[in-house]
Give the backbone structure.
Amino acid sequence: MLLTHATLATMTEGYGLIPDAALALDGDRIAWAGPMADLPAGYRALPEHDCAGRLVTPGLIDCHTHAVFAGHRAVEFELRLKGASYEEVARAGGGILSTVTATRAASEDELLAKALPRVDQLIASGATTIEVKSGYGLTVADELKMLRTARRIGQHRPVTVRTTHLAAHAIPPEFKGNAMGYIAEVARPSLRAAHEEGLVDAVDAFCETIAFSVDELAPLFAEARAIGLPVKLHAEQLTDQGGAAFAARHGALSADHLEYLSDEGIAAMAQAGTVAVILPGAFYTLRETQAPPIQALRMGRVPMAVATDLNPGSSPLASLTLAMNMACTLFRLTPEEALLGTTVNAARALGLTDRGHIAPGLRADLCIWDADHPAELSYRIGATPLSTRIFGGCLDA
Ligand code: DI6
Ligand code: FE
């Protein structure tokens, strides 16, 4: 296929804009990209798709979601509006644990049926790659069920799914007060079993006063290292637990949330090349008032990604473009940083080197937008100007 007359944002250096561009695709790969005038003769006979000046970007990447779960938390939303805090709801057995109860009761088929419409919304906002975490099962069998469901999404929809083991998300009632026991008897064994079944691409955990401390997580990260899986961490979302520095010491792909990130955490992330994943949907939903230290991350040259954190509690958000808008308005990212955050830096946060920008040899995952400037993607509130996607060289029907 040959895309012609595109306004191309290659995302190679900043936007990397090429005004009247052509893009030749060969199977699921990009063969050539550049100005129309320079198109090599050999590509001119390919079947043509005229973009008529529309913006073409890399397919968007949502590098942090909890898209597989059962039930919803609208009642908890209402409780919070009546004055309860997120932590109070969690301590009272609501919060993550109420989703755990619903998810344990659901079959794999039921979980898949509930996840697909959420994934469809992400796809409608331009996603071609999504990460999906476990973490609402909290038994070996239920964590495996979630990861199998996540893998199956990719067989039902034109999207690449990267799966993350997040058994260390909360301490279930049967291990109350025994975080170490839970790590030893559920988190580590489920990780090993998931790895043996080929179900897991990375290991995540929730480092927080209402979840796990860095000391409790150390054996889990050691297990991840032993089986050769990369780690990442929900760090410094509600309080500073030194999670980002701990993750960076383990060579983490990313540290995520980061509202309470310290200067030491930033320095450690910069040194390790750990991506800062910014999640404005959770900040917005929880009415957090402390923004992540964006300017210090910039100064420290820590790459920033933007993701939805799609989950039933703290971020019922299924639009990457709305996440980009929120990152700009709430955290003062520039629209260019926001788009780098859902392309180049999101790929890096997932350890993927074959996507995230536009260059020969990379996957032909692209979005064609009814827009003529990339800032439009972040500028609109809740409206996604997606015209069509190309996934692995195939135009969406
Ligand atoms: N932080 C979050 O924002 C999500 N998980 C986490 O560790 C929230 C998950 C939930 O409330 O269900
Ligand atoms: Fe999360």
The mean pLDDT is 97. The pocket of DI6 (ligand 1) is lined by residues 66, 95-96, 99, 169, 206, 234, 237, 282, 309, 311-315 (CB under 6 Å).
